[in-house]
């Protein structure tokens, strides 16, 4: 596909860099990536949606690529509430009318946060890994040893040694995660390098480390977001039309998330796809089809 020019827009705390596909008057979609990925996870998803008349916005999340903070004094937070708020502020800045949100990993988490806290602002949701809102209190309790083993990077990031490891070896570490989380996906070095350039953002390490320390309950969040985090801790149901997805070969989600269905109280469908964790890049047609299904319900 043709290389898309990077655009930027100012929000309250960020200058968000993003890609913009499709007609300017198309039905709006925001596609949100996770860690350690970037906008290129959706390179093959966006053209499918553009062909169906959508306008697709694909932002670099805070700490990735050209997205930058508006001032030095702004906290380099990676917590879920701020990443959800970033999506709302991006939508407002671009004048989008109730976009469909779709994402995976951090992007699925942030999209679910918006759907739970600001349902009136969006049209619908596609979420990889079901109801993907972080339960910070539950994170203080252990998982099965097999899952703790898969989440080695989260434990590493709780230490200053882990911060240094990410800072000094970010590309090697992130490529390991790609390989571990998508065991059936064959990608070449050029595909990885295209995304890995986003990890050179000067605030990448700070945002990533804060995200995982906050989610473990071991780092304070932005005090201005405490009320939002308290609302998320109540596990609010999602009341917008939603398609949720699981990858059969994702070691981070053993057994899948079909049991999350009770958390979706509007039109909802759960799909299981033959893929690993990076479903949009491994199975772009399946990811796009989930968004088109939500569009049918609106």
Question: If you had to describe this structure to a student in words, what would you say it looks like?
Answer:
The structure is a single chain. The chain has 298 residues and is an alpha/beta fold. It is 39% helix and 16% strand. It starts with 6 loop residues before the first strand and ends with a helix. It has a single domain, classed as Alpha/Beta hydrolase fold, catalytic domain (Rossmann fold), CATH 3.40.50. Helix 2 packs across helix 3. The model has no long low-confidence stretch (mean pLDDT 97). Helix 3 links the parallel strand 6 and strand 7. The chain is globular.
Largest sheet: 9 strands, mixed
Q: What's the Cα radius of gyration? A: 18 Å
The average pLDDT is 97
Low-confidence stretches: none
CATH topology: Rossmann fold
Total strands: the figure is 9
Taken as a percent bin, the fraction of beta residues is 15-25%
Helix and strand run: EEEHEEHEHEHHHHHHHEEHH
Number of separate domains: 1
What form results from the Cα inertia axes? globular
Structural category: alpha/beta
Helix content class: 25-40%
Task: Characterize this entry briefly.
The model has no long low-confidence stretch (mean pLDDT 97). Helices cover 39% and strands 16% of the residues. Helix 2 (80-94) packs across helix 3 (106-117).
Descriptive labels:
Rossmann fold, alpha/beta, nine-stranded mixed beta sheet, globular, about 40% helix, about 300 residues, 9 strands
